[in-house]
Amino acid sequence: MQGIGVTGAVAPALLPEQAQAQTPPGVMGPGAVAITLNINGKPMKATVEPRETLLDTLRNQLDITGAKRVCDRGTCGACSVLVNGKVSYACSILAIDAQGKQITTIEGFAMSGGKPHAVVQAFVNNDAQQCGYCTPGFVVASKAFLDHTPNPTYEQVKDGLGGNLCRCGTYVGVRKAVLEAAKMMKGGSNA
To answer: Where, by residue number, does the polypeptide cross the bilayer (predicted)?
Structure first.
């Protein structure tokens, strides 16, 4: 019968000066770095750890709090922002990777010419918010959707906003709001 052998070798004991030399440094990996982000048309500076998300940087360092943390897994859409015009989940983007890109949050278009943006107004008109936690993400996604689909059908709205979830179930109001906003934007109001 053949067994698993043990060599019997034992690691030699370290002398105190050798043990001290083997102690790992206090900081493991890169530290915080200074970055500049273009948010709502303005350069904004922050100091972030390389693992920090865009959502954390927006909310905790730059006091831009429209995007909400809900799932923190890139599935609910409450943290939706526009990155180079495309809807993106801020909880899934590293802040350092967002450098050099155009970032638009709900704060960047919520008011236009002193009046609410057409999408914002349509959400109010149609009671398209309940607890309000998902609302900023839905408004951002709706604006981006209408930028690419200015004359949508109800089914297109339903499919186009499939990346955003509402725990309160106010989907009917959201969809009606997007259809109303499309009409308002066509008429030249707050496009």
So the answer is: none
Q: What is the pLDDT along the chain (191 residues), one digit of tens a residue?
A: 555 554 555 555 656 565 555 555 555 557 899 999 999 999 999 999 999 999 999 999 999 999 999 998 999 999 999 999 999 999 999 999 999 999 999 999 888 778 999 999 999 999 998 888 899 999 999 999 999 999 999 999 999 999 999 988 999 999 999 999 999 998 654 54
Domains of the chain: which residue ranges? 33-107, 111-186
Contact 66, 34 (CB under 8 A): no
What is this structure's pTM? 0.80
Helices (H) and strands (E) in the chain, counts: 6, 7
Query: ∠ CA 82-86-90 to the nearest 5 degrees?
Result: 45
Which residues neighbour 63 within 8 Å (Cβ) at sequence distance 6 or greater? none
Q: Fold for 111-186, please state it.
A: DNA polymerase; domain 1 (1.10.150)
The residue type at 29: G
Rg (CA), the chain: 25
Q: What is the spatial distance between Cα 134 and Cα 128, in angstroms, rounded to a whole number? A: 10
Residue 86 phi, psi dihedral angles, 5° rounding: -105, 135
DSSP letter, residue 131: S
Report residue 44: phi and psi, to 5°: -130, 130
CB-based contacts of 108: which residues, under 8 Å, 6+ apart? 39, 40, 41
